[in-house]
Amino acid sequence: MPGLQSERTTLHRLPERGSHDREVIDPILDEAYLCHLGFTQDGQPFVIPTIHARVGDVLYVHGSAASRAMRTAKVGIPVCVTVTLLDGLVLARSAFHHSMNYRSVIVLGTAIEVTDPAEKAAALDAIVDHVLAGRASDARPGNDKERKATTVLRIPLTEASAKVRTGGPKDDPEDMALPVWAGVVPLRVVAGAPERDPKCAVPAPRYLTKER
After folding, report:
1. Is residue 8 part of a domain?
2. What is the model's pLDDT at position 1?
3. Where are the alpha helices (DSSP H) in the chain?
4. Residue 98 belongs to some domain of the structure
5. pLDDT at 206
6. Does residue 126 lie in a domain region?
7. Contact, 25 vs 81, CB < 8 A?
């Protein structure tokens, strides 16, 4: 896979933590449930949380057709999409060196509204399956009214960078002997047991009950 480095995505601070390789970027985009879509309207920056899905070399985001983000971005403006996975709290001996272990991606590009019905339907299915694989084929597909009320944006994966921090605290040598606990508190997202809608008599599908 080609890298996604450009002048705008070149990493300047702690570049040793960064990557422009798809082998690093794609898994982070695929694992994250939530992204933030950044754009500017009349000189005012906005950052909106939404759900995304990567399909090959394209990132799709969606939202209500009436929302500010979709109405502004669909005309083809520069946007910034970010995702972050938090892997741990890094506790150092000094307050200054406290940190977090994380994996993050920034995608830059021009958002274009998806108007082709087939591509839009496929993108919406991909977004549903991004949340829970197998769900799109199980649930009722969107109807014309619902699709009309939803805007899907396509952002090509041509400019992106990833940044990853791993490992323990990086204390100064003179602080190493301080009587302060130091280390990492690992963090991860864990799915709980499915909670059935009281009005639902359908058994839980396998993609909910299998070990994940």
Report:
1. no
2. 44
3. 22-31, 68-73, 117-131, 144-148, 206-209
4. yes
5. 87
6. yes
7. no
Decide if 161 is inside a domain.
yes
99: Cα within 13 Å, side-chain hemisphere: 13
Q: Are 114 and 60 in contact (CB under 8 A)?
A: yes
For each successive 10 residues of the chain (212 residues), what is the average pLDDT? 63 70 95 94 92 96 89 87 97 97 96 94 96 92 92 94 95 96 95 91 86 54
Can you spell out the DSSP letters for 10-63? ---SSGGGEE--HHHHHHHHHH-S-EEEEEEETTEEEEEEE-EEEETTEEEEEE
| pTM over cut 0.70 | yes
Q: Which two tokens stand for residue 48?
A: 């909106």
CB neighbours (10 Å) of residue 16? 6
What is the amino acid identity at position 34? L
